[in-house]
Amino acid sequence: NKINTFRDELPLRGHLICPKCGRTLTGSGSTGRSGDKFYYYHCVKGCKERMNAIETNAAFTQKLKLLRLNSQEINLFMKNLAKRLKDNSSNNNAQRTKVAIEIEKNKTRLKNAQMLLLDGDISSTEYHEMKLKFEREIMDLTQVQNQFYSAPISHDKIIETCKNVILNLDIAYEQAGTQIKQRIVGSIF
């Protein structure tokens, strides 16, 4: 049976390989006589190999069940994740400070332009051009700044969620949507 052979030799490269010719398989759906859709992985360019997608996906999930990390590997992964989260947080704080400084600079420039107008050193047309420029810059920087103030997520919560995914990779894969499934496959294989 093709599926049983495939189940034992599921390639670990991030894509499915045809057991007959070695090419990458692609997926598509076929409509049966009753109008129901049936999904398959199939080969291209003359090779007639095809496999039922449901059975193949079940075989892949079984392979995921076999992937188990020991506690030392999991602890190392969690330690690295915590460090990356901390580094990202520090980087965000630095970026937030940089943006705040730029906002203040533009506010000061706007005040200085007002003083130049009041002192008669620039025309009202020049002032309005500067005012538009500085206000637009302040508005753009404020939008960037607001991105940094989104609801903070606890690093502990992220780490715990990742640990649960790693410990139950097959379940996480089965429950995930297409994009998350692709990320899981891509991160492992």
What does this structure look like?
The longest helix is centred in the middle third of the chain and has 48 residues, at 71-118. Helices cover 66% and strands 8% of the residues. It is built from 7 helices and 3 strands. A hairpin with a 7-residue loop joins β2 (37-42) and β3 (50-52). α2 runs antiparallel to α6 (169-175). The radius of gyration is 28 Å and the shape is elongated. The chain has a 3-stranded antiparallel β-sheet with strand order 1-2-3. By secondary structure, it is mainly alpha-helical.
Q: How many helix segments?
A: 7
Into which percent range does the helicity of residues fall? 55-70%
Order of helices and strands: HEEEHHHHHH
Strand runs, count: 3
Give the strand order of the largest sheet, numbering strands 1, 2, ... along the chain.
Answer: 1-2-3
Rg, Cα atoms, Å: 28 Å
Outline: elongated
Structural class: mainly alpha
How much β-strand is present in the residues?
A: 5-15%
| Low-pLDDT windows of residues | 1-13
The description of the largest β-sheet is: 3 strands, antiparallel
- Distance N to C terminus: 25 Å
Mean pLDDT: 84
Which terms would index this structure?
mainly alpha; 66% helix; three-stranded antiparallel β-sheet; single chain; disordered N terminus; 7 helices
Write the topology of this structure:
Elements (H helix, E strand, L loop, with lengths): L1 H7 L17 E6 L5 E6 L7 E3 H14 L4 H48 L5 H25 L6 H13 L1 H7 L2 H11 L1
Antiparallel strand pairs: 1-2, 2-3
